[in-house]
Write a structure and sequence with these properties.
Layout lengths: L2 E5 L7 H12 L6 E5 L1 H11 L5 H9 L11 H8 L10 H10 L12 E7 L5 E4 L4 H8 L9 E3 L2 E5 L1 H4 L3 H6 L4 E5 L14 H24 L4 E5 L15 H18 L19
């Protein structure tokens, strides 16, 4: 039975996927192939390159991260971008360095566990499954949020963040003809009590809401066609996709929630219901 792991985007909420991976690993559930978008491509690349390493090693990477390691503040560059003299607000250098430190194979096709990452062609808008080519550039392209980072050119084609077209790429797993798909969604801040306080955080929150709605549609669409196992995103959740200070907490919560879910052996039907838009009682 061919098993695929599908990992979504979600910026700092990618820590949630680490807890999910730990719960799956404890039960001996391992992927035959991995498909990731954006931060899911980063987590997926680490997993593909370290198939036998303890997930605690990935957790250690996450708990050592700070916002500047991914989204470095640069007011001058931001002003130039708003003036039309830059294509992006932030320097991709720190993110590229992070990927280079933790991806241990040079090309996607060299990964010990087959790895595919999703990026979007800037000129056509198509979401593309990258299965061969330079590993660091491909993962960076998958995470190149438009207007935040410059597009990444591979083979003469400029790419941007795969989440724009397919944030949780179940469709690509189905096209690869696997038997079972485990979906690891970083989720979204579903229990905010007030709007995000800055422009970038607001933009990422709005994007995460849009992409989560698409995930609900995709789960409903593909559930009858393939054995789909969706680990529930964390709920309630108030952490911003820009806030990397809660990684340890998110990992632990996701591990505990996923462990309970797996122990209860939920049937793989009606899974979109627990991800639909909802309210939270006043706390």
């Amino acid at each position: 039975m061919a098993v695929a792991f599908v990992l979504s985007g979600g910026a700092s909420l990618g820590a949630v996927e680490v807890g999910m991976l730990a719960a799956l690993r404890e039960r001996g559930i391992r992927p035959d192939l991995i498909i990731g978008t954006s931060v899911g491509a980063l987590n997926g690349a680490w997993l593909a390159g370290h198939p036998d390493a303890p997930i605690d090693d990935l957790a250690e990477v996450w708990t050592g991260l700070h916002r500047a390691d991914v989204f470095p503040t640069d007011p001058r560059r931001g002003l130039l971008a708003f003036a039309g003299r830059r294509r992006s607000l932030l320097d991709e250098g720190p993110l590229r360095s992070l990927i280079e430190r933790h991806v241990n194979f040079s090309r996607l096709e060299d990964a010990p566990t087959p790895l595919h990452v999703v990026a979007v062609e800037v000129l056509t808008g198509r979401d593309v499954l990258l299965s061969t080519g330079p590993a660091v550039d491909s993962v960076l392209a998958s995470a190149a949020l438009p207007a935040v980072f410059d597009p990444v050119e591979i083979g003469g084609v400029p790419y941007m963040d795969g989440g724009v077209g397919n944030n949780t790429p179940i469709s690509h797993a189905v096209a690869l003809d696997v038997d079972r798909v485990w979906v690891l969604s970083a989720g979204h801040a579903c229990a905010l009590t007030e709007p995000p306080t800055n422009a970038l955080a607001m933009a990422l929150h709005a994007l995460s809401l849009l992409l989560h709605r698409q995930l609900v549609v995709d789960v409903e669409r593909y559930e009858p066609r393939i054995e789909l196992r969706v680990l529930p995103p964390l709920c309630p959740l108030t952490v911003s996709p820009l806030d990397f200070s809660h990684s340890a907490e998110l990992i632990e919560r996701a591990y505990n929630a996923s462990t309970r879910w797996l122990d209860e052996d939920h049937p793989p039907v009606g899974q979109a219901e627990f991800m639909s838009p909802h309210d939270h009682p006043s706390r």
